[in-house]
Amino acid sequence: MHKPYITTQGDTWDIIAFKLYGNEKAMDKLIEANPAHRDTVFFSANVSLVVPVVEMRSTDPAPPWRQV
């Protein structure tokens, strides 16, 4: 089980997703895991959120030096 994420004042779903996963597109998974907060736009401080495991697939091609 992963540690919960504790919000800071002004956090938004996309900011949290970027902090946790390096990609704001994962915010949908965060919202799904935290239905009680689905209507929240700006978080207040100290809200505990469930952090699901999210695999981010890259659609960008590998850089030339990594291509075989």
Structure characterization notes:
With 68 residues, this protein is mainly alpha-helical. It has 2 helices and 2 strands; from the N terminus they run E-H-H-E. A two-stranded antiparallel ribbon has the order 1-2. Helix 1 crosses helix 2.
Question: What is this entry, summarized?
Answer:
The chain has 68 residues and is mostly helical. It has helices at residues 13-21, 27-33; strands at residues 5-6, 48-49.
Question: Notable features of this structure?
Answer:
68 residues; 2 helices; two-stranded antiparallel sheet
Largest pleated sheet: 2 strands, antiparallel
The class by helix and strand makeup works out as mainly alpha
Low-confidence parts lasting 5 or more residues at pLDDT below 50?
none
How many individual helices? 2
What's the assembly state of these chains?
A: single chain
H and E order:
EHHE
* Computed CA radius of gyration, to the nearest angstrom: 14 Å
Strand element count: 2
Approximately how much beta-strand content do the residues carry? 5-15%
Q: What distance lies between the first and last C-alpha atoms, to the nearest angstrom?
A: 36 Å
Estimate the global geometry from the Cα principal axes.
elongated
Overall pLDDT score: 87
